[in-house]
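One-letter codes give the sequence; the fold follows as tokens. An example follows:
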Amino acid sequence: MKATFLGTGTSHGIPMIGCRCAVCQSDKPKNKRRRCSLYIQAGGKHLLFDTPPDLRDQVLTFGVERVDAVFITHPHADHIFGFDDIRRFSDLQNGHIPVYGSPETIAAMRRKFDYVDKQSHSFGGVPRVVFTEMRAPVQVGSAQITPVPVMHGEDIVYGFRIDAEGKGFAYIPDCSGIPEQSFQTLEHLDVMILDGLRPGKHSTHFSIGECVEHLQQIGAKRSFLTHLTHHSDHDALQSSLPAGIEVPWDGLTVF
């Protein structure tokens, strides 16, 4: 199993438009954060988690050349509005790509990208995908992907657990609460990635302190924050965290 952070930033991305704070003006590469996305090679397949507006730049920068399945955590703009670029992968692979999400997410994807299913687009200039409601674990190659329902404010959205090659990996980029049943799904993990938006509290995201507390409870062998705002300089945040909890950066690869 190999995972690449394609993006680790919040909905605005870092630097934010029109902001001249120290982090947005930083020349440190690790302070440049695209919108959240993750790419996993596991079980002989290539899995993409979310399709943010930065997707084209992400896949070109980090060498993504194949996508066998797409998993959508929820249909907010910063997680889906690069979706049309999936058509390049369906063209390269000359086939349809399954796109998984909760029933509510798939319904929203059909509304927001209604042209995908229209027969009138016979010229092929749309992603060739199969929208698939995900209510239980699915198998892609030898990898098993399990939906992990969590709270994002008042909404229920998905994180995902990926098990392959004897490794357990979980990704929850947007979260303000983890129900007990979902918490049990996060046992015995090698890697856990969890939303830790900013130092202060937020109505729809874990703060950094809340994220750290939950990561310690989950107890994965390696733990990461993601979905970071411009309130956090990479090096300063890393130096403040307990041992075993890491700040990722765009392009970081975890084996």
